[in-house]
Amino acid sequence: MHRLYHRDADDLLSKAQTKRLIERTIASIEGELRCKVDFDQMRLQDRPISIDVIVPYKTTGKTIASPIDVRAEITKELLEEFAVFGEMRPLQLKVVCTDSTTSADLTSLGPEFFYSGSSQVPLTEDYAPFFSNVSAFGRLDTATHESLARWFRKHDLVDFGSAVMADEDAVFIRAIYHPVQRFAYFLFKPTYKDLQDDLEEHLRSDLAQHLADRSLVVSARNEKSTLADRAVAGRVEQGVNEFTGEAMVAKRGGIAGALLQNPFMGDILSSVEYVAHKNQDRIDKYGYWGLIVFVWIPFMASGVLVGAMLGLVARMPFERVLAACMIGGTAASLTWAYTARGIIEFMERYHAEAIIPVILLIAVAFTWLKIRDNRIRRREELFRDSMAFFSGVSD
């Protein structure tokens, strides 16, 4: 956990650097998505417990990605960059299409892909090249749909909406599929990326004579896939009750990454980190000796685990955190041991040994309730502040 949470000050991204990283990442996939991001209107909220981003964009004549596709692809790329830079805070992203219409709703070749500016062509113009192009596009459209039908049958999939669009430079194909087999959620193994690559290879082979020098752009996704599936997130947190939203954490390898990506352990560690952030001002004020006292005090929401996290969050050197946890932990162990001994002797004196299991159960229940309360308060704060940040922005 030290390697995951503790980084030197030079390795930490400032708010300005985080913003530049996000802008650079989005700019790098803007061309692939065939949309135009309005970076002047893009907004960022950098918090200790999350990074919230609003991305407004406009579609172009070549856009085949829906807002859901745009959000999934941007989230995926950002999480990959966060993993490289060791950024483990949850990401909450909202994309806003500022257009009134989008070409992603088309299901076949639209007239704008055949010919542009035809109303300005003189009546004496030779229309043979125009109709030749229309015929070529028509053959491409037919061949593409036939090829898609064969691909759906090959993988035993149902077509839930395919779009085929083209111009003089590229052919754009979007496929939304759904597995036919029963219990597909458990049994259907191929990922959307595997099938998307396979579809692209299949179409390149079938449409070789129609593509000529044009590039092929393919988008494929499972109709039942979630944003988290497509973004390849390490862990996902969902809003509850009136606090809605979806926060995703970058995927990390190793034991620490496996712990954080496990829903149960991830919740506990995130709650511990939340408590550490809440108490950071005390450690900033009292430093090393304050951390020892924090670890030593025998109350819930303190202790070695929270103290270690708190020291790392406060940028304290690892050796001092280790020493403070050892000293405070030893003092806490002695305090608890003598306290328990006194309680047991008192109960034996009054023949109340039967109450000991009840006291243990109460202690366990109180600990569980405290962890649960911290988890609920963290999740409410995580999504409440994000909802306030996103409010007033139309989808």
Automatic annotation (TrEMBL):
- In its keyword annotation, does this UniProt entry include Transmembrane? yes
Q: Which UniProt keywords apply?
A: Membrane, Transmembrane, Transmembrane helix
- Pfam families tied to this protein: Sm_multidrug_ex (PF06695)
Give the superkingdom in one word: Archaea
Transmembrane regions listed in the UniProt entry:
286-314, 321-338, 350-369
Q: This chain belongs to which protein, by name?
A: Small multi-drug export protein
